[in-house]
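Weekly modeling sync, notes
Attendees: AB, CL, MP (scribe)

Item 1: holo prediction request
CL wants a bound-state model with PRP before deciding which constructs to order. AB pointed out that an apo prediction alone won't tell us much about the pocket. Agreed to run with the ligand included and paste results into these notes for async review.

Input as submitted:
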Amino acid sequence: MEHSKLRVLISQEQIQTRVRELGAAISADFAGHELTVIGTLKGCFIFMADLVRNIQVPLNVDFIEVSSYGDSTVSSGVVRLDKDFKHPITDRHVLVVEDIIDTGLTLNYLMENILLRRPASARIAALLVKEAKQSLDHPIPYRGFNIDDHFVVGYGMDYRGYFRNLDHVAIMEDDRQPSLF
Ligand code: PRP
């Protein structure tokens, strides 16, 4: 696997420190309550696995799959629901976990869908936020890092399905001629 076109943006150590801080904040805010943590597949899977292990309140997990990019590096502008979550969330405190908020389109769609099911509350946790670009209609109370408008991979995020297994976040510097191997 050739990684010559990848540059480290956020190291494994920086991520792990920040995830512990987010977990502590979530634990404090929801002390005395239970949580339903809903991950947005596929990109969330590593962040969510690390985050829930740093949350100290009783919780269950569920997953939803929504896609907006396909194999492109640019948002298609169309959100598609590929897999719905299974457990009822009415009257439960919900934490929606995203790896990255780019345009905010995916989460606007998802939050609308979740709020219709009348949870006790619904909050967002996102590892990365492209602050200059996103037009999300909801606050992001738990955010890992604000980043500039780079195409990033690693720690769950992919390019054409690859690089999700990197333990850090990297910038793909030239995606016009990707060389995966
Ligand atoms: C990514 C990411 C978010 C969404 C953010 O998912 O995981 O769900 O895009 O983009 P937006 O804010 O512009 O809507 P992607 O479609 O790449 O699917 P994946 O998580 O399965 O890789």
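Recorded for review: The radius of gyration is 16 Å.
Action items: CL to compare against the apo run; MP to circulate these notes.
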